[in-house]
Amino acid sequence: MNAAIRGRSRPIYMDHAATTPVRPEVVEAMLPCFSERYGNPSSVYALAREAQVTLEKARGQVADALGAATEEIYFTSGGTEADNWAIKGVAAANRKKGDHIITSSIEHHAVLHSCETLEKQGYRVTYLPVDEFGRVDPASVEEAITDQTILVSVMAANNEIGTIQPIKKIAEIAHDHGVPFHTDAVQAIGAIPIDVNEMGIDLLSLSAHKFGGPKGTGALYIRRKTRIAALMDGGAQERGKRAGTENVPGAVGLGKAIELAVAEMPEKVPRLAAMRDRLIRGILDSIPETRLNGHPTERLPNNVNVAFRYVEGESILLMLDALGIAASTGSACTSASLDPSHVLIACGLPAEHAHGSLRLTLGSQNTDDDVDYVLSVLPRVIERLRKMSPLSPEQYT
Ligand SMILES: *Cc1c(COP(=O)(O)O)cnc(C)c1O
Asked: What are the C-alpha distances in Å from 370 to residues 131, 160, 366?
């Protein structure tokens, strides 16, 4: 194992679901907005008008990537704000119409915790179950919907296990009942084709740092005529719906990053999917008592999530880190707590498996050599941990 580390000059980053490096083209597009083009888009002189034009160009790039109209894109401080706004904003604007929201049990915490806040305010929330692969059954949406339902929110693809949801079908069912449909597409942008009209999406959350853009910037797509309250009070920015001086460099970075991410999909998706499949096959073939989490085929092209019995995910991460590999057990947001992932539990994974999960998420910079290296060290890492584990049965001690 040591010989393998000595040969490595750079760490292997396989945690692209947590964040991605900002692309050089994106940095280059952003830089002038900090220095020469620093105007406040709300002011009246030439410098401000220039900032306004720059901002609207970025808005157009985001709209084009989604098949939306430019005026349907609202910049936010990221995916978390977009999710909070979609859920709390639609709930507040429709309080007289109804008090019921439908979501899934495997959403990101930005969605789940927003729904829990609403429950404390008297709204009712249905958290739909998922099957063993993490898929929501569209029929369960039909069963849950009532004349009090004001929003259906189901993520396009899961950040932990990579499962892609049948959102087009779910949106159709919501619309049959006159209910708007929101999707958290933070993990889906640049990975699966998204067209808000073709897929019947009324609200969509996205975040720049998940596809080569800067952190702290994202957007909410809001279909024309959707009833939604503002989350922030203040100035009249973002058509009076999202107050606060616009993050012009952030918006420009988002615009450039989404344009590149969508344009590169035809080349990138098959390349990442091939590495993903080699990792999955290699791990399952070389390490006993291991299972794949998530869906075998309806899966993000860059997501590998496997569960090893008798080991703790946290110890796997520490050993991989010592070998120069950056990975995750699931969601970056829950790794500080030792609770098993709510996503894996919802998929019905037994607790002894849920604790030993490992997520590897690939990006453009990963190579076949990276895959070979991970496949060469991982069996020994798991074997060593199993030897030390009090959870192991006889054969491993
Ligand atoms: C990362 C992520 C978010 C949060 O986005 P931020 O921009 O980091 O706030 C929300 N949903 C999903 C599915 C994510 O992966």
From this structure: 32, 21, 6
